[in-house]
Amino acid sequence: MISSIKLRRQQSEANVQSDKHYPEYKDQLVCIPAGGGKSILMVHRVEEHLKKYGGAAVVLSPYRKVNEQLIKTFRNVSDLKVGYLSGTRHFFSMSDVYIGTVQSSLSEDYQAMAKGLIKGNVSILLIDEAHVGYDHYKPMLDMLNEDCLVLKLTATPYKSNKWGFPDSKLV
Q1: Is the pLDDT of residue 62 over 60?
Q2: Does position 88 have pLDDT exceeding 60, yes or no?
Q3: 27-31 and 169-170 beta bridge pairing
Q4: Which of 18, 31, 10 lies closest to 125 in space, CA to CA?
Q5: Chain centroid offset of residue 70 CA
Q6: Which end is more exposed in the chain, N or C (fewer Cβ atoms within 10 Å of the end residue's Cβ)?
Q7: pTM of the full predicted structure?
Q8: CA-CA distance, 162 to 29, in Å (whole number)?
Q9: Which residues pair with 30 in a beta bridge?
Q10: Rounded CA gap, 92 and 107, in Å?
Q11: 110 touches 84 (CB < 8 A)
């Protein structure tokens, strides 16, 4: 089921552009201001992507509080089954969406458990607050299959007054 919450203009434009530019651009960046509705956009993007391409989604952020909010949002407005990663607890029970912190994704236990799931099943990876510690996401990115869409979301695309995402397509 596509979320019943209607997207605002900026969210809708980002959603349409992301879909339009995939699979030509698999590394995409969405810039929406704080409070602009990135969480709702993520739900829509995941639902539409999974409906069209199948597989599962992984959503990562650097903060547990953000993940708690994302889990709540996905569960409240979507029928997608949500699994989560937290510290050493990993719940991979046939979920559509897996939500966790970058710290969880870097643990050796997680990587050992997730390698098969991620490589063969994940068709979209979303990185919320992508401007925070983006370099730490490299091990996760290396696990993805080459057709996976990587969608980075941020309100702050600059690092030290330089564009922080030179390899990403701004959508």
Answers
A1: yes
A2: no
A3: parallel
A4: 18
A5: 10
A6: N
A7: 0.87
A8: 15
A9: 153
A10: 15
A11: no
